[in-house]
Specification:
two-stranded parallel sheet; Helix Hairpins; alpha/beta; 2 domains
């Protein structure tokens, strides 16, 4: 089975979501289904069908999270040795062609949040960065065309 890399923070966030889904969302949707059943004919009961659809979504998400956690390879970036190379968990400072500085942490797919400066290990920019060192220039195929970035710094926090 394929291992899913994630940071310690990402694993904790998934565990918290799983706890919320099992402890709050699942019981609430079971109550909503029971209440909707009490309204009579199920074939024309929109509340019942909406609640069942929501239950299906919640159960699917629970299975997805449990699977990811079962196959997780949890990596603590603060324990990685700084070799100057970009690897999973690294915080990378980049400079683009215009001289603008960008800082990203290479994180797991579920942790990706561009506004928080975390990019997915499977994103085009992360794939271009992994294995490169400080001072290297990388070209990234972006939706607006190819962009070049210089790796200014690599650190592990």
């Amino acid at each position: 089975m394929k291992r899913t890399p994630m940071t310690l923070r990402g694993a904790e966030a998934l565990r918290a979501e799983l706890k919320r889904l099992k402890g709050e969302a699942r019981p609430n949707i079971i109550k909503a289904i029971a209440e909707a059943r009490g309204h009579g004919d199920l074939s024309e009961n929109a509340e019942y069908h909406a609640a069942r659809e929501q239950q299906s979504f919640i159960e699917g998400r629970i299975r997805d999270i449990e699977s990811k956690l079962a196959n997780a390879e949890i990596i603590d970036p603060s324990r990685l040795t700084n070799t100057g190379k970009v690897v999973f968990g690294a915080v990378v400072e980049l400079e683009d062609e215009e001289g603008s500085r960008l800082v990203y942490q290479v994180a797991g797919e579920d942790e990706a949040d561009i506004s928080a400066g975390r990019i997915s290990i499977t994103s085009p920019i992360a794939r271009a960065l992994v294995g490169k060192s400080e001072g290297d220039v990388v070209d990234v195929a972006a939706p607006g065309g190819v962009r070049s970035f210089e790796i200014v710094a690599v650190r592990f926090e």
